[in-house]
């Protein structure tokens, strides 16, 4: 993973929290999943997707 943020669960590009799969911030099982909104919609949890849909439709 590149950038200024570093995940404490990433070891040599692999996620120690999710069965040593390649680190992909926001993947299911990631500590970020369901807590943040991602620009790629497929990374967003169903709850986040509902919130975004409601916000787009003018519901608060």
Structural class: alpha+beta
The shape is: elongated
Largest sheet: 3 strands, antiparallel
> How much helix is in the residues?
10-25%
Layout of helices and strands:
Layout lengths: L9 E2 L2 E2 L5 E2 L23 H11 L4
Antiparallel strand pairs: 1-2, 2-3
Structural write-up:
With 60 residues, this protein is an alpha+beta fold. It has one domain (10-56). The chain contains 1 helix and 3 strands, in the order E-E-E-H. The chain has one helix spanning 46-56, and strands spanning 10-11, 14-15, 21-22. The chain has a 3-stranded antiparallel β-sheet with strand order 1-2-3, with no helix packed on it. The longest helix is centred in the last third of the chain and has 11 residues, at 46-56. The radius of gyration is 14 Å and the shape is elongated. It starts with 9 loop residues before the first strand and ends with a helix. The model has no long low-confidence stretch (mean pLDDT 80).
List keywords for this structure.
60 residues, alpha+beta, three-stranded antiparallel sheet, 18% helix, 10% strand
What is shown here, in short?
By secondary structure, the protein is α+β, with helices and mostly antiparallel strands. Helices cover 18% and strands 10% of the residues. It has one domain.
């Amino acid at each position: 993973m590149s950038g200024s943020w570093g995940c404490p669960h990433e070891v040599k590009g692999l996620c120690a929290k999710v069965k040593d799969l390649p680190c992909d911030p926001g993947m299911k099982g990631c500590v970020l999943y369901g807590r943040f909104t991602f620009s790629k919609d497929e990374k967003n949890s169903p709850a986040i997707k509902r919130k975004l849909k409601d916000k787009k439709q003018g519901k608060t």
